[in-house]
């Protein structure tokens, strides 16, 4: 029997803009320190399920789960010394009157859940989504996709299921699966395990590139809901499942289905919606909220030298129950949640405030998230 946490009211956080810090600002309190959430009771009962929570001494974070975001940032800084052009969501190279835009990514330890549940048909969708959602941040239309599948011993049925998902992801992205590589490497992977990587290439006219250079104070932030955890933060997810003694087969307490169903929900692909929006309104910036959550991803679209920040209204959306459960079951600080997960917002776009009505009328599922303000960093109000 797993341990299901009761769901609290939507999370709240108040953070000032940090205009003085040279480091990437985080989600902060008015004193500049990280905000810890109010802890829920350590145990209770809900329906058929025993409800339990990590003790305060066992508060979990991405770092305690084995992932060091700061180390990743340090690696990026070192690579930038060798190649100063990196750091965006994708890379661009001139090609005639256009830019070819490329991105690469994987699915991370979400694969571990697929192994446990023996469900592999949606992993390919995740793989495509992670790369195409990155390249559309520059306004590029995906053209083709390549994949890499590596395993210790090839299971044809499993590999076929993964590729079937890749094909579906390409269909949703309106691009083609151009090719790929299957590597069978005995002794390198545990039995029944594999790893995947994806590579997407798209194109955008040079005059239509979205690079954040025209973002200014007063611009509006439009949010697009995520379909779940997407493909980041699963090392922490798995640790929370472990300490809360929750099984993937256990039913969730806030609706129908199991934890496995909720966590393996494929990553939302935003390509068609975003490209359609770009055709209708002037989009100045696009953020794909992945690893690093709000504070690590959102400021990336502001060009160096611009003193601009992001004021986000917490009342603009409700944090989905899955994230509320993860926070409570793992005793995770709210600042850590926003630095690890998308918290229900998978994509963010910056437009002129005069275009808000048109944007929301065109895409009723989008929502006004906040605005651009002076200062730096991400402020939740």
UniProtKB/TrEMBL annotation:
Principal place of residence: cytoplasm
Subcellular location: Cytoplasm
EC number(s) given by UniProt: 6.3.3.1
InterPro entries: PurM-like_C_dom (IPR010918), PurM-like_C_sf (IPR036676), PurM-like_N (IPR016188), PurM-like_N_sf (IPR036921), PurM_cligase (IPR004733)
Pathway named in the protein's UniProt entry: Purine metabolism; IMP biosynthesis via de novo pathway; 5-amino-1-(5-phospho-D-ribosyl)imidazole from N(2)-formyl-N(1)-(5-phospho-D-ribosyl)glycinamide: step 2/2
One GO CC term, this protein: cytosol
A GO molecular function held by the record: phosphoribosylformylglycinamidine cyclo-ligase activity
Record-linked CDD domains: PurM
Keyword vocabulary terms for this entry: ATP-binding, Cytoplasm, Ligase, Nucleotide-binding, Purine biosynthesis
Name this protein carries in UniProt: Phosphoribosylformylglycinamidine cyclo-ligase
